[in-house]
Design brief:
The chain is built from 14 helices and seven strands. The protein is an alpha+beta fold and about 400 residues long. The protein is elongated, with a radius of gyration of 31 Å.
Length: about 400
């Protein structure tokens, strides 16, 4: 009866991994696919092959000397690939190669134990090695704990606990008196099989849920962030501007707004191509960030027009900030494949007034920017000066 139960569990694990393999194969299938997701699909294919081979060995279809070492070798490889995919998804590509090397070392150790031909030693090695590889995957899920979602934290804790349950048979031999008796006991074996089954479900469907969660979070981010320059777009900037508009109605230091526009940018796209134009925009954003404080905000309004929000900054101070940025842009040409591209920018500066709306605020800043353009470009104009000229 025990052998039948073990064979049934192995068959269930084989069929479950085959089903997950199919789901991951068709999930977000297309010409462009995330490398981590592709690696997860590969890991499930390898694990499905491993459990299928072990199931055929238990049924006597495949000889045990072939099914047992071959099945466990594939299983170690599949779990190692899965852990490597978790590290890659966490942005730690440097950990992927050591994880795969650990999987290869686990295969080598198991083969040595198998050649010694002691049933207890093989089971001990399989328990400890599988538990260690699953713990590596749990560590990958737990990386970046502070920024991780609740789902990712739950999966990390669950994987770690289940990995310890898988390794419990081997740990009992090393830590408990009479440990070899526990290794052959039915209870640890059933707990280990149940843990492997839950790990299959948690890691399989957890991957799908995490992928969907990250996609949703990325879509929400792109609603307020410009994908080219990675700064807030018009919607994100206006959302951040709201509280400062309200604070302007209270006594205290003013908040300044700087609007800048690159001069004659069309010649860059026409003469050097759009990739060069994109490089110029990213370069200008980096130059601006170097001149700003952590509390300042740079955003892209539209095209080559940017806005800078300077909290607790007077008009004269904002003009100095704009002047520093103008000088930095004018003195830092962008290196492209065909030439060095020199750029200049014009600036309009104003402060938020208590009676302002976003319309009147940006109208005043745009009027100052227009005055800078009409005065010859590559200069900074204050809103008050623009109004006096008008």
């Amino acid at each position: 009866m025990t052998n039948l139960d073990a064979s049934t569990m192995v068959l269930v694990l084989a069929l479950g991994n085959l089903a997950l393999c199919a789901v991951l194969t068709f999930f977000e299938h297309g010409p462009v696919r995330a490398p981590a997701l592709a690696a997860w699909g590969l890991s499930k294919q390898v694990q499905a092959g491993a459990w299928t081979l072990l199931a055929l060995g238990s049924a006597g279809v495949v000889p045990e000397p072939l099914a047992l070492p071959g099945g466990y070798a594939l299983l170690f490889a599949g779990v190692a690939i899965e852990a490597g995919a978790s590290w890659e998804q966490a942005g730690r590509e440097g950990w992927r190669r050591p994880t795969l090397l650990a999987g290869g070392l686990a295969i080598l150790v198991f083969f040595v134990c198998y050649l010694i031909d002691e049933q207890g030693l093989r089971s001990l090695a399989a328990s400890l090695l599988l538990g260690a590889l699953y713990l590596n995957g749990a560590a990958a899920l737990a990386s970046g704990w502070r920024q991780a979602s609740l789902l990712q934290r739950f999966l990390a804790i669950l994987t770690a606990v289940l990995a310890l349950v898988v390794a419990a048979r081997g740990l009992s031999v090393l830590l408990l008196p009479g440990g070899w008796r526990w290794l052959s006991s039915e209870l640890p074996r059933q707990l280990s099989s149940a843990a492997l089954y839950v790990l299959m479900l948690a890691n399989g469907f957890g991957v799908l849920l995490l992928a969907r969660e990250r996609a949703t979070r990325e879509l929400a981010r792109l609603e307020v962030v410009d994908p080219l320059t990675d700064v807030p777009n018009r919607r994100g900037l206006f959302a951040a501007l709201g509280p400062w508009m309200a604070l302007a109605r209270r006594p205290g230091l003013p908040t300044a707004l700087v609007v800048l526009d690159l001069d004659q940018f069309k010649r860059v796209n026409d003469g050097y191509g759009h990739p060069a134009g994109d490089a110029v925009l990213r370069h200008v954003v980096e130059l601006c960030k170097r001149q700003l404080r952590d509390s300042d905000m740079l955003g892209r309004l539209v095209g080559v027009e940017f806005a800078i929000l300077l909290p607790r900054t007077k008009l004269e101070e904002a003009v100095l900030v704009a002047e520093r940025i103008r000088a930095a842009i004018a003195s830092s040409p962008v290196k492209s494949e065909r030439a060095m591209i020199a750029m200049t920018a014009s600036f309009g500066v104003t402060v938020i007034r208590p009676e302002d709306s976003t319309v009147t605020l940006f109208q005043r800043a745009d009027d100052a920017l227009r005055a800078a353009k009409e005065a010859g470009r590559n200069r900074v104009s204050q809103a008050a000066a623009a109004e006096l000229e008008a």
